């Protein structure tokens, strides 16, 4: 005797469009097999099934006659199979069927909250296991703004695996949803909307992080041949200055330079402006830290005329887009080529349509706001300067400055959201919260011409 094997596939309900034809017709036609062979009684729904005996010898009821929307009651041996279109092992609650054997593309649960996305299912975000969440970036946290029907998790950027709650362990709120691309525990200072900003201005370089950098200066102030040049650290609590490295030119001689400003790039390159030679210098010391020395190397030809006041670059700063900018006493913002040291374009620094008279300046980069900062001794104002030269007043120190306030250097502090200011012999801080105050830190004991956070030998 040849046993016919039947796959029992009964459409669950008819109100969801899954029923291929009117329920009565389906029930009727299913009573007769292909070719006119009668089907076993339990293969049909409705009344036939309610009294029949199954192919496996059991009996059961599958639906009730005349009620197309009634819930199905599988006869023993038949499971409820639900479509798993995205193949993540979780089925959609719509379109489920009853079958005693597996159906390709179907699973025995209906727990998927988005069956068109295989990274969305119950437990997809491993650290939020009770949710049916989306974890598209595999960082184990669920999207906090998912599509309708999906549980919201706490991943503030689910397209970026380096952004999640607790990404930045060294920040003051380590549980915040932040971005830490270089995995140094400090969060990107400018990560974009919806993400907690941190204090890492260099989130692509783990060597450049707030706890690995010290406030430094290049000494001595002023020029003159013969005297030794040093890199010195500055204690940000006391303003104490301590030499840490001797700086030599590539031939091993004391370079005849007078430092006006210095700046650090994301790749660790350090450039400085030399007033004596109207030129750029590269400072390199990582390869010679153990010997207690560093090297100052001229970058290309001079970019101005030595001795000409307007050509003095009082500020030099890496800024938006990693570009190199300088501000000179000609009241211009320059863009410079960091390799050749040459000025490639210049725009006037303008506030409210009027030119800013720059004299005795300091320059810094607010990496959180992605804007250059200019502290101008001529008017006691700290400006934000856009790359087109447009300036707006960020901090008004005209009421706080003493007579003869003459800044020589400015540096942005991403941890405290403040700036350090050198007025030659004195160190100050000014908050960037709009309070327009100047706080005295201490005496350097000698004139300090530059301020720059740098990674110092360890
Ligand atoms: Ca899914
Ligand atoms: Ca995620
Ligand atoms: Ca993420
Ligand atoms: Ca980081």
Write a brief caption for the model.
With about 450 residues, this protein is mostly beta strands. The protein contains 2 helices and 30 strands. The chain is elongated.
What does this structure look like?
The strands form seven sheets. The chain has an eight-stranded mixed β-sheet, with no helix packed on it. Strands 21-20-25-24-23-22 form a six-stranded mixed β-sheet, with no helix packed on it. It has a four-stranded antiparallel β-sheet with strand order 1-3-2-4, with no helix packed on it. The model is unreliable at 1-72 (pLDDT under 50). Helices cover 3% and strands 33% of the residues. The protein is built from two helices and 30 strands. It has two domains: 1-112, no CATH class; 211-455, 6 Propeller (Neuraminidase). With 458 residues, the protein is mainly beta. The structure holds calcium ion (4 copies). One calcium ion is lined by residues 137, 139, 155, 157-158, 160-161, 163-164.
Give, in spatial order, the strands making up the sheet with the most strands.
12-13-14-15-11-10-9-30
Q: Which whole number gives the mean pLDDT? A: 86
Count of domains? 2
Which architecture of the largest domain would the CATH scheme give at its second level? 6 Propeller
Question: How are the secondary structure elements laid out?
Answer:
Layout: E1 10-11, H1 23-29, H2 47-51, E2 79-83, E3 97-99, E4 106-107, E5 120-122, E6 132-134, E7 163-165, E8 177-179, E9 213-219, E10 229-234, E11 241-248, E12 259-264, E13 270-274, E14 279-284, E15 293-299, E16 313-318, E17 324-328, E18 332-336, E19 343-348, E20 350-351, E21 354-355, E22 361-366, E23 371-376, E24 381-385, E25 390-396, E26 409-413, E27 418-422, E28 424-431, E29 439-448, E30 452-455
Parallel strand pairs: 11-15, 20-25
Antiparallel strand pairs: 1-3, 2-3, 2-4, 5-6, 7-8, 9-10, 9-30, 10-11, 12-13, 13-14, 14-15, 16-17, 17-18, 18-19, 20-21, 22-23, 23-24, 24-25, 26-27, 27-28, 28-29
The structure holds calcium ion (4 copies).
The site of one calcium ion has 10 residues, from strand 5.
């Amino acid at each position: 005797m040849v046993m016919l094997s039947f796959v029992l596939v009964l459409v669950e309900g008819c109100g969801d469009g899954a029923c291929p034809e009117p329920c009565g017709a389906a029930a009727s036609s299913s009573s007769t097999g292909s070719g006119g062979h009668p089907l076993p009684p339990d293969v049909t729904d409705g009344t036939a099934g309610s009294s029949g005996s199954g192919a496996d010898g059991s009996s059961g009821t599958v639906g009730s006659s005349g009620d197309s929307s009634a819930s199905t009651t599988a006869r023993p041996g038949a499971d409820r199979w639900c479509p798993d279109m995205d193949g993540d092992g979780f089925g959609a609650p719509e379109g489920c069927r009853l079958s005693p054997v597996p159906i390709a593309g179907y699973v025995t649960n209906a727990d998927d909250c988005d069956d068109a996305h295989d990274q969305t299912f119950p437990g997809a975000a491993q650290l939020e296991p009770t949710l049916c969440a989306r974890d598209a970036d595999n960082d184990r946290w669920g999207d906090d703004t998912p599509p309708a029907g999906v549980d919201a998790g706490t991943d503030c950027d689910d397209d970026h695996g380096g952004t999640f709650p607790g990404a930045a362990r060294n920040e003051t709120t380590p549980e915040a949803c932040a971005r830490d691309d270089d995995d140094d525990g400090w969060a990107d200072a400018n990560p974009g909307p919806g993400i907690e900003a941190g204090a890492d201005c260099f989130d692509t370089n783990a060597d450049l992080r707030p706890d690995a950098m010290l406030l430094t200066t290049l000494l001595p102030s002023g020029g003159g041949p013969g005297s030794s040049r040093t890199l010195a650290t500055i204690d940000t609590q006391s303003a104490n200055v301590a030499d840490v490295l001797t700086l030599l030119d590539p031939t091993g001689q004391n370079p005849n330079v007078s430092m006006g400003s210095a700046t650090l790039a994301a790749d660790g390159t350090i450039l400085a402006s030399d007033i004596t030679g109207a030129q750029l210098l590269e400072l390199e010391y990582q390869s010679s830290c153990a010997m207690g020395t560093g090297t100052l190397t001229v970058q290309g030809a001079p970019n101005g005329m030595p001795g000409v006041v307007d050509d003095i670059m009082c500020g030099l700063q890496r800024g938006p887009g990693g570009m190199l900018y300088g501000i000179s006493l000609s009241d211009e913002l320059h863009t410079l080529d960091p390799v050749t040291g040459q000025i490639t374009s210049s725009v006037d620094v303008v506030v409210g349509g009027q030119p800013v008279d720059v004299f005795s300046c300091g320059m810094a980069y607010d990496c959180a706001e992605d804007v250059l900062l200019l502290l101008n001794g001529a008017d006691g104002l700290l400006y934000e300067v856009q790359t087109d030269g447009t300036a707006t007043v960020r901090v008004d120190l005209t009421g706080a400055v003493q007579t003869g306030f003459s800044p020589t250097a400015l540096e942005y502090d991403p941890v405290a959201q403040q700036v350090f200011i050198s007025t030659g012999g004195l160190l100050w801080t000014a908050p960037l919260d709009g309070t327009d105050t100047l706080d005295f830190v201490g005496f350097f004991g000698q004139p300090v011409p530059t301020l720059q956070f740098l990674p110092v030998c360890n």
